[in-house]
Design a protein that fits this description.
The chain is mainly alpha-helical and 475 residues long. The protein has two domains: 265 residues, MetI-like fold; 209 residues, MetI-like (MetI-like fold, Orthogonal Bundle), CATH 1.10.3720.10. The protein is 77% helix and 0% strand. The protein is built from 23 helices and no strands. α6 runs antiparallel to α7 and α11 runs antiparallel to α22. The longest helix is centred in the first third of the chain and has 34 residues. It is globular and about 60 Å long. It is a multi-pass membrane protein. InterPro entries: MetI-like (IPR000515), MetI-like_sf (IPR035906). It is found in: Cell inner membrane. Keywords: Cell inner membrane, Cell membrane, Membrane, Transmembrane, Transmembrane helix, Transport. This is ABC transmembrane type-1 domain-containing protein.
């Protein structure tokens, strides 16, 4: 049973997650449809710019908005209540997480075969094409985007902790840190897994079924389908794009930079040490390789069956804090210091944490591979290492590359697990940022954010070029 405080926290988390999911998908549908079907200058540029908020830790959004409101209200502390309210947290997390649903929905629209749209345009108008063809085609991706955004929001720890809002994840953390009730913390952690597992089961068994959740590639369209719009509407849409980019990317980064330039004036070598940047890069690089190998094994052994897929996708809702608690409980023994006191424990935790996501990438790619390729290969090559080398690896090489860069970004921006189980003397940029913010050394945050953006931008750029520039992979 849940106490009144825990029940209230659960309701807060559910309300926040539903709100963020709703507004994120709403924004993403507008952006994806506008960039796909309207003639707007700078489409590719905006497609990339709207992914940048994922590089910015959500608590930096909260920090920037707080300082902006305090400055506008002449440092009247009463304005903070607007941020630590439920609508305030929903607004902050929507600006931080809408790129998740935008990327999924935008790729789904780009993956709609051109011949379906061409055939429909012969018998009806573009508006009905959008309603009957496009909406139906992107429904699985839209549902997936909604659920993934719900999960990510529900298990978010940093923004509620920074703003002092009682949510379910903070109750799990308090059960472990304040009362040392590990069984209670684990019991509370199972609740979101059960809720999300039920959602995945409904989604897989009744709504999406065997359709891919999202698209990893897009078809090249010989004659892009576009809707003519008045000049005023084009200007209005472009203005909305710019405003959204300013609020979601420029504001959280710019507030810190302006504050540093005008007041703090902290040099880069003081704000972010070379060792922390190096730690972030090499732990992300090695962990992402291990995640891909581990996820491949999970996919081959369990994920291809419906029950296994539902189970592992449900684990996405297991809070990262719980992974930290479990690994502390399991490895905090003198005989296991070779793991617990070294970054090896981080690599293992990252593998378990992100394996469901990468396994789903592999599953989605498998659904989109033409089975005739493998059938034809079996006629030429018997099942052997040669067939694996000549056929299987080339077919899966793009998704393995994508899984690696995706895992790299996930590790570089993972806060709760890294914060809880990082070994003594080891820090990454994301944990250093959170620590200096927690202890009030905000003057050190500005250029550390630039360092985090630089490291995190590497896989995001790889994803962008993979999906948008490389025409061979678009066919």
């Amino acid at each position: 049973m849940l106490s009144n405080l825990e029940l209230h926290a659960l309701l807060n988390s559910t309300f926040i997650s539903l709100g963020v999911s709703f507004f994120s998908v709403l924004i993403s549908l507008f952006l994806a449809f506008s960039l796909s079907f309207y003639k707007i200058p700078g489409k590719r540029l905006f497609s990339f710019l709207f992914l940048i908020p994922l590089l910015i830790p959500p608590y930096l959004h909260a920090f920037s908005w707080m300082h902006l409101l305090l400055f506008l209200e002449n440092y009247n502390l009463s304005v903070i209540r607007h941020l630590n309210s439920l609508p305030g947290i929903i607004g902050i997390l929507t600006l931080a997480y809408f790129p998740i649903s935008f990327f999924i929905i935008h790729q789904a629209i780009k993956n709609i075969p051109q011949h379906l749209i061409d055939a429909a345009l012969q018998v009806t108008n573009p508006v009905r094409v959008l309603k009957r063809i496009v909406f139906a085609a992107i429904l699985p991706s839209t549902l997936t985007a909604t659920l993934l955004t719900f999960i990510v929001t529900f298990i978010t720890f940093d923004v509620p902790a920074y703003l002092g809002k009682n949510v379910f994840i903070t109750q799990i953390f308090k059960s472990f840190t304040f009362t040392s009730e590990i069984p209670r913390a684990l019991y509370l952690s199972v609740i979101p897994v059960f809720i999300v597992g039920s959602m995945w089961a409904i989604l897989l068994l009744y709504l999406v079924k065997e359709k891919p959740f999202f698209s990893l590639q897009s078809f090249k369209k010989s004659v892009p389908f576009s809707i003519q719009q008045p000049r005023l509407l084009k200007i209005l849409m472009l203005s909305l794009f710019v405003v959204l980019f300013l609020l979601s990317s420029i504001l959280p980064i710019g507030i810190l930079q302006v504050k540093n330039i005008l007041y703090d004036k902290i040099p880069f070598y003081t704000a972010s040490s070379f060792g922390v940047i190096t730690n972030t890069f090499w732990i992300s690089f090695i962990s992402s390789i291990c995640i891909v190998f581990f996820s491949t094994l999970i996919y081959i052994m369990f994920f291809r069956k419906m029950a296994g897929r539902i189970f592992f996708l449900s684990l996405l809702a297991l809070p990262p804090i719980t992974y930290g608690i479990l690994f502390i409980y399991l490895f905090n023994h003198p005989s296991l210091n070779v793991i617990y006191a070294t970054p090896i424990i981080l690599i293992i935790a990252y593998c378990f944490r992100f394996a469901p996501l990468v396994s789903e990438l592999l599953h989605t790619h498998t659904q989109q591979v033409n089975p005739q390729y493998l059938e034809a290969a079996r006629l030429v090559y018997p099942p052997s290492l040669r067939m694996f080398h000549r056929i299987v690896i080339p077919l899966y090489k793009p998704v393995l590359f994508l899984a690696w860069v995706f895992s790299f970004w996930l590790v570089a921006t993972e806060l709760p697990i890294t914060l809880l189980i990082q070994p003594p003397g080891f820090q990454t940029i994301i944990t250093r940022l959170f620590i200096v913010l927690h202890y009030g050394a905000v003057e050190l945050m500005s250029l550390m954010t630039v360092a985090l953006l630089f490291v995190s931008l590497l896989p995001i750029l790889a994803i962008y070029f993979f999906f948008h520039i490389d025409k061979k992979n678009d066919q």
